[in-house]
Amino acid sequence: xxxxxxxxxxxxxxxxxxxxxxxxxxxxxxxxxxxxxxxxxxxxxxxxxxxxxxxxxxxxxxxx
Length: 64
Prior knowledge:
The protein is an all-alpha fold. The protein has two helices and no strands. The protein has a domain of 27 residues.
């Protein structure tokens, strides 16, 4: 079952927008998917400063 997604507003640079649109045109993957993947990468990078937080269930969690 798909997890519920929340709506939020983000601000990106025009260059980021252009690159995301081009990536979407070439891959047909929705831009929102790339943004969620980017958020997951940042959360994984800073996992060590988020003690007590549970891992997101993305299938890429590292064992603790």
